[in-house]
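Ex. 9. Protein: sphingolipid 4-desaturase.
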Amino acid sequence: MGQKVSRTDFEWVYTEEPHASRRKIILEKYPQIKKLFGHDPNFKWIAGSMVLIQILTLFVVKDLSWPWLIALAYCFGGILNHSLMLAVHEISHNLAFGHGRPMHNRIFGFVCNLPIGLPMSISFKKYHLEHHRYQGDEVIDTDIPTLMEAKLFDTTFGKFIWVCLQPFFYIFRPLVINPKPPTRLEIINTIVQLSFNAAVVYFVGWKAMAYLVIGSILAMGLHPVAGHFISEHYMFAKGFETYSYYGPLNWITFNVGYHNEHHDFPSVPGSRLPEVKRIAKEFYDTMPQHTSWTRVLYDFVMDPTVGPYARVKRKQRGLAS
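Predicted C-alpha cells for sphingolipid 4-desaturase:
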C-alpha cells in the first residue's frame, strides 16, 4: 500500500480551457441545441421530494442504534443528500426557475441545502461558476488539489486516506487558496441552515441531526456516488481534462456524469444533457469516458499514474509563467 505515484507535478498547459471553443463549434453545426437551454420545470418537484423524504426519515432514525443509523446514513441518507448537493449544483446555474428569477433559485437552494446539514448552497455557487469560467486556473479553480495535498497523499495508502477525507478538502480548500468575504446571502443561508438544525435537534433529537451530517460526509468520501468528484477532471488520459460517465448512477445525480456536455453547455439542465450527446455524438463518443464511478475510485487509489497531481493546471491570468 506504499507505492508512490509516478507524477511529481501537475499537468501544466498554456492553452485556454477547451469547453468555450467546442461550444462555439458545436452550436455552429447544431444550432438546435439552443432549444435545450433553460430551466427544467420538473426539477423543483424532484428535488423537493428528496428534501421531504429526508425530513420524514428523521422520525425513523431517531430510535435506531448507532450501527444501524450509520449504515442507513451510508446506504440511503447519504445518497439522498449527495443528490441534493447536485441539486444545489443545478440551482447554481439557475436551472430550477431560470435566469429570469434568480432569487427563486437562491431560496430553493436554501431548501435543498436543509437535509445536508452544513450551509453551502450560496458558497458553492460563488466558487463553482468560477470553476467553469477559469477551469484549471492555479488560484481561482478551487476544485484542484493544493500542492500540499499532492505531496502529502502521494502513495497508494495516502490516496485512500485522501479519498476518505475529500469532504473536508472540498469544504476548507476554497478558504485556503481563494478566500472571499461572506456575502449577505451566505449569512442568510447560514442562519436558515442553523435554524433548521436547531429545530431538528429540538423536535427529533441529536441522533436525527447526526444522521443527516454523517450521511453527507460519508457520501462525499469513499462512496460510489462520490466517484464523480474524481471522474470529472482527473487526468486518466493525457491531454484530456474533462470526462463523462454515462452509467446508471446518473439517474440519481441529475446526470452530472454527462460532464463534458455540462461544461460545454452549462445552461442546459441535467435532464436534457443526454439529448446534447445524442445530437452531437461525434464530439463526445470519441473522447475518453468512464464506465463506473466505483472503478474510478479503485483506479485512483491503485494506479500509480493517477493521484492528486493528475490535474491540468494553468497559470493565473496576469502571472508570469
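Check your answer against this statement. The mean pLDDT is 96.
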